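Put briefly, the fold is written as integer tokens. One such record reads:
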Amino acid sequence: MKNSVKAFVIATVMGVSGSAFAAQSIDNNPSIEITAEPVKTEVMFENLPEAVQLGFQESDYAESTVNKIFKVEEEGLTSYEFYVGADNEVITFSEEGEITE
């Protein structure tokens, strides 16, 4: 009788753990998304591309105080962030001197 109880307990434990194992799915093709952080480098106005300088000078922000300018490189694209005015409003220009945001 003791052997049959042991066998029953072992079979039950094996059956439960086996079904729990069987319930797990294995993904053979996991997808990993890697996104790089943008690289920001502070630049001086006189070191900007001519198109960006001209775009800023012709914009509504031309008379604003420029606090900082960053060259932003992300996913193969370059843009320029101008932090202007007392509230540090961010104005973004493309390499062609167009406001993008």
Remarks:
- The chain has a mean pLDDT of 82.
